[in-house]
Amino acid sequence: MFSFLQSFDSRTFTWIILPLLIFFARICDVSIGTLRIIFVSRGNKLAAPLLGFFEVLIWLTAIGKIMQNLDNIMAYVAYGGGFAMGNFIGIWIEQKLAVGLVILRVITRKDAAALSEDLRSRGFGVTCIDAEGNEGPVNIVYSVLKRSALGEAIGLVEKMNPGAFYSIEDVRAVSEGIFPHTGPFAQKKYLKLLRNRRKGK
């Protein structure tokens, strides 16, 4: 591929085409690297090594062209710019994928019964406890949920208990739990599970 591109005018290739190739190569390898780090932190033993292979492969290609053009200042600029943009794009992709689980912790001075009931009606697993804050009694609501459902849960919190303090933490793994389901098949499965629980009472 590089031999084909070098058929262009040498100055055009050196100062425009080569820096652009390095820039986009760095975007790819840093984006992949950002996702790899996230998967490593979540213990994904398949995705992390696979992404690491492609990350290093692309990085070696980019750094190889840099070493062949040490006198080209634009190659250095493209390398740094691609690194910065790669971090941004990697985080953006990860947010769009919304992979994994999180803990949503809500602390409110208002009665959390309505909030807990509303969350449960949407399929979220909820644990609610009484606690003591700096300014008196508070309710703490915990829920472990899929990151893809986080926006819906936060929307319910802000609707039912505006001004409530909440925090979000990543979860590496859980043994069991109740999670909101999407799609007709999953909804039937959730209703069947609910019926079985009622029969067992």
Number of helices: 7
Percent helix among the residues?
Answer: 55-70%
Beginning-to-end CA distance, first to last residue? 68 Å
SS-based class: alpha+beta
Element string (H = helix, E = strand): HHHHEHEEHEH
Report the sheet-strand fraction.
Answer: 15-25%
How would you write the strand order of the largest sheet? 2-3-1-4
Reported for the largest beta sheet, the result is: 4 strands, antiparallel
Quantity of strands, as a count:
4
Q: Which whole number gives the mean pLDDT?
A: 81
Which descriptor suits the 3D outline? elongated
| Count of discrete domains | 2
* Rounded Rg: 25 Å
The low-pLDDT segments are 182-201
Structure, described:
The protein is of the alpha+beta class. It has seven helices and four strands, in the order ααααβαββαβα. The chain is elongated. The chain starts with a helix and ends with a helix.
What's the layout of helices and strands?
Layout: H1 2-5, H2 10-41, H3 47-68, H4 73-97, E1 101-108, H5 113-121, E2 127-133, E3 136-146, H6 150-160, E4 165-171, H7 184-200
Antiparallel strand pairs: 1-3, 1-4, 2-3
